[in-house]
Automatic annotation (TrEMBL):
Pathway: Purine metabolism; IMP biosynthesis via de novo pathway; 5-amino-1-(5-phospho-D-ribosyl)imidazole-4-carboxamide from 5-amino-1-(5-phospho-D-ribosyl)imidazole-4-carboxylate: step 1/2
The name this protein goes by in its record: Phosphoribosylaminoimidazole-succinocarboxamide synthase
PROSITE patterns according to UniProt: SAICAR_SYNTHETASE_1, SAICAR_SYNTHETASE_2
InterPro entries xrefs: SAICAR_synt/ADE2_N, SAICAR_synth, SAICAR_synthetase_CS
Known catalytic reactions: 5-amino-1-(5-phospho-D-ribosyl)imidazole-4-carboxylate + L-aspartate + ATP = (2S)-2-[5-amino-1-(5-phospho-beta-D-ribosyl)imidazole-4-carboxamido]succinate + ADP + phosphate + 2 H(+)
Encoding gene, per UniProt annotation: purC
SAICAR synthetase/ADE2 N-terminal domain boundaries: 8-262
Organism: Catenulispora subtropica
Keyword list, A-Z: ATP-binding, Ligase, Nucleotide-binding, Purine biosynthesis
SUPFAM superfamilies cross-referenced by the UniProt entry: SAICAR synthase-like (SSF56104)
Keyword Cell membrane: no
Pfam (any one): SAICAR_synt
EC code: 6.3.2.6
Family: Belongs to the SAICAR synthetase family.
Amino acid sequence: MITGLNHLASGKIRDLYAVGGDLLLVASDRISAYDYVLESEIPDKGRILTQLSMWWFGQLADLVPNHVLTADVDEFPAELAPYKDELRGRAMLCRRLAMVPVECVARGYLTGSGLAEYEKNGTANGVPLPAGLVDGSRLDRPIFTPAMKAEVGAHDENVTFEEMAERTGDPELAARLKDLTLAVYSRARDIAEGRGILLADTKFEFGRLPGGTLVLADEVLTPDSSRFWPADQWHPGRAQPSFDKQYVRDWLTSPASGWDPRSDTPPPALPEEVVQATRARYVEAYERLTGVKFV
Ligand SMILES: N#Cc1c(N)ncnc1-c1cnn(Cc2cccc(F)c2)c1
């Protein structure tokens, strides 16, 4: 948290500030696992994921406008000058939007809450899926599985498209959000697959400009907003390894940590080698996707 700025909200990993009529989205080096924010930070994680978001916004600009004014600290308003070094690379100055109260989730692979519903009903957010799918199955056509935003700390509530249309009171907006979400995810899935990363699913947030234009908001297509899987380790029928969090998960569930995920106790600090190996995974994901060396 940056004292001295007008703090608006905090998620597990990021903080939101008001700067004049705009917003500043700041990504920390925090990392979460097993629904806990760990006491150990991953050096540069916020910078790597912010630069990855910015790269994706560029890749998607022909499909959808976004809310970012700039991520260059030298272009930030003068009031932010005292915080330049702390913000460099990890902050996006964004236009303030009227946010749509829906988590727009696209799934290209079946896992997590989507798999749970499928195993019970053969559907995902009420939409029937083909028989015989297993954990990690690739879906021929990505699906839109919206969720109504929950309070901080609670899990979002998966809803059918029809429920979403009803609860937003705007069926046209619901249809537009579905189309945009699937088009943007499909483009990203194809780009990532060509670089050895499977984007299993992702969560987009949209908002509206004063004139009503629908705009892509928040961060996009990072390992915090999406499931990143290494393509060369994809084996449907089991839990897939996480591209970025597997070292953390493996250590936390190993005897070495002395921690039990089923206990109500917070996880212990990570060993330095796990921190550094995890940092290296974020750097690798960034460099593989963008083709640019992280500096
Ligand atoms: N992006 C964006 C945005 C915008 N451009 N205009 C208005 N509101 C938001 C906005 C509101 N909540 N969040 C999510 C959120 C919560 C907590 C911390 C965070 F970093 C992010 C995003």
